[in-house]
Amino acid sequence: MPIKTFLIIILLLIIGCNDTYDDYRPYGGERSLYIIHADGSGLQEIFQENGQISNLQFLPDGSGVVFKARGNLSGTFLYQCATGEIIPYEDPSSPDSVWIDYDWSGEIYLINSVIPDTVNLTNDDKYQYDPVLTADHRSVIFLEQSSYEEEGYFGIKLVVMDINSRERTEIARFDERAEVLIYPPDRSLIIYNCTNGWFNQLWLLKTGSLTISKLCDTFSTYGGDIDSGKTAIVLEAFSGDNMEIFMIDLASYVKTKLTDSPGADLRPKFSPDGFFLLDLASHIKTKLNDSPGADLRPKFSLDGSKILFEYRLDDKSRLYMIDRSGTNLKQLSPEHLYIGYYCASPDNSLIAFTGED
Predict the structure, then answer these.
(1) 288-305 b/e with 16+ CB inside 10 Å = b?
(2) Torsion of Cα atoms, 260 then 250 then 275 then 66, to 10°
(3) d(Cα 268, Cα 279) in Å, to the nearest integer?
(4) What are the structural domains, with CATH classification, of the chain?
(5) In what order do the strands lie in the sheet containing 211-219?
(6) Do residues 99 and 111 touch, judged by C-beta distance below 8 A?
(7) Distance of alpha carbon 303 from the chain centroid
(8) Tens digit of pLDDT for each residue in 240-281?
(9) Are 158 and 192 in contact (CB under 8 A)?
(10) Within 10 A of 347 (CB to CB), how many other CB atoms are there?
């Protein structure tokens, strides 16, 4: 197996919790952007939008926060920490100046934050969803519900569209349901989760060649992650009566069960460095937190020393930070906010997050 023993993942153990919540929300977001010091002081609401705010990321030097907005203002913006000013942001080396979104009616849009401009790519009465823009910005890959009346087939089609010509090509068909599960930042491959009753199949699409192959059969699957070398994925899936963590080698398609516990092991994440909370060689698991609620969507800081996560109890959502050792647990967000995206500055001194009352 090409996975080295230094590749590790983090998972948070959730006892008796059936809550599932996406770590990555490519098509959602909240209405307000906040920034706070890591010691819990100095909370500021720095931007509010009558729409969505998403995809937060600190600049490499920590001097500002880049985010996307869609509403009265649409585009990519930069909050400058020193001045408090918010300005349009353009990074020519980043594909994030152009991105894909879709609305609840099933129309797919191409959004260019540099012009700015929004183009309806599909503009029909069919329902399309989960679009992924290829790295060269020439094509968009999406899922489309088929019409039995028009096509004599009911299910989900995987389609690629040339953005310039709008020509569509069907890549594959799935039976009942399908959704995007994981893809790396360069979008060179996409993992699809396809449901047929209680059973799931995972399919691997290589976006360069548009070839698709089945990874494995599995039970209900929700969250996961892909390592930086794109050699393996980790995900949560039912095993018996419990949710456990599995790893799938993307070269051999071999599936390995990593956990076996009475609780629900959810939201696995690869760490950015060589330390571990769950060692892939020994499968030794270190429990970080013990709480009555649900600890969700763990995210490492850039240096791997801190973990941000959402804590949910009694329909309330809170943002917490904890050291990787399991010490220095601190609540960062106020009680009244529902937490969306979040990230830490490179030196871990500031935390940016989205929230909504």
Answers:
(1) bbeeebbbbbbbbbbebe
(2) -110
(3) 12
(4) 8-356 (2.130.10)
(5) 177-182, 189-196, 199-206, 211-219
(6) yes
(7) 20
(8) 777 788 888 899 998 888 777 776 676 777 765 433 455 444
(9) yes
(10) 13
